[in-house]
Amino acid sequence: MNQRQVYSIISVLVALIIIISSLAALYYYDYSQVSSLNASNIQQLKTFESKYSSLAGRYNSLLSYYNDSLYYLSLAISQLNTSSTAYIQASQNLTQLWSIYKHLIPASNQLPTTDIKIEFSNGTYQWYNITVQPGWNLYIATLVATNGSLQATWYPEYGEHFVTGILGVQNTNSEYWFLWVYQNASWQIAQVGADDLPANNGTVYAWTFCTANAEFMPTCTP
Which single residue of 3, 76, 153, 216 has CA 20 to 30 Å from 19? Predict the structure, then answer.
């Protein structure tokens, strides 16, 4: 190998080193850029995670206040005169607020449900499957199911409502609303009023409108 060949090989090697160095510098620059961007993204992710946790905490806190407001509103409604303007407005507001609340809570929150049948004297009836707030009684559940179309006389000395009208159908001198409980695979006349019946998960109730016998027992069954 002569001197010229040696120089040629050296020149080629130097050129390769320069090319490789340039590529390495370019790759390093790209790596630094990506690494910097990744660090920035990680920092942003941590910031977003912190903000999300803060927002989630506030959201849950507001839901808790909302839930408390629903409870106290239902408690107030249960002791108002049903002919008063306050009762009519509050009962409609409760129905609307409860509908909104059900869309706000996480899907993982399983609320209890109760089934209510409302049957009229002509044999027609309506079934309602109502999602309820834990602690509600049947009176409040019926109020929500009928969008506030429930009339009753409140007897504070007994802590009970005597229901006089549902969905615009009022008691008369010969026909009345009667309350039923479905248990042991049969319908049984309720032994207590709607205020004392819990609207628990899986409970089934019925309201029937019909005449009564001499002992004031209904002449109909659901």
Answer: 3
Contact of 132 with 144, CB cutoff 8 Å: yes
Give the chain's largest Cα–Cα span.
133
Task: Tell me the one-letter amino acid at 167.
Answer: L
With a threshold of 0.85, does the pTM exceed it? no
- How distant, in Å, are the alpha carbons of 36, 82, 204 from that of 120? 73, 21, 17
Write down the pLDDT at residue 15: 58
Within 8 A by CB and 6+ apart from 73, the residues are: 90, 93, 94, 97
Q: What is the pLDDT of residue 22?
A: 65
Task: Name the residue ranges covered by the structural domains of the chain.
Answer: 1-77, 110-211
Please tell me the predicted confidence (pLDDT) of residue 23. 61
Tell me the C-alpha distance between 144 and 93, whole Å. 10
The distance of Cα 34 from the centroid of its chain, to the nearest Å, equals: 44
For residue 130 the two structure tokens come to 């109502």
Distance separating alpha carbons of residues 141 and 150, to the nearest angstrom = 11
Q: Residue 30 and residue 52: Cα distance in Å, rounded?
A: 32
For residues 62-89, average pLDDT: 76
> Running DSSP on this structure, what letter comes out for residue 212?
B
* In CATH, 110-211 is 3.30.300.30: no
CA Rg value for the chain? 36
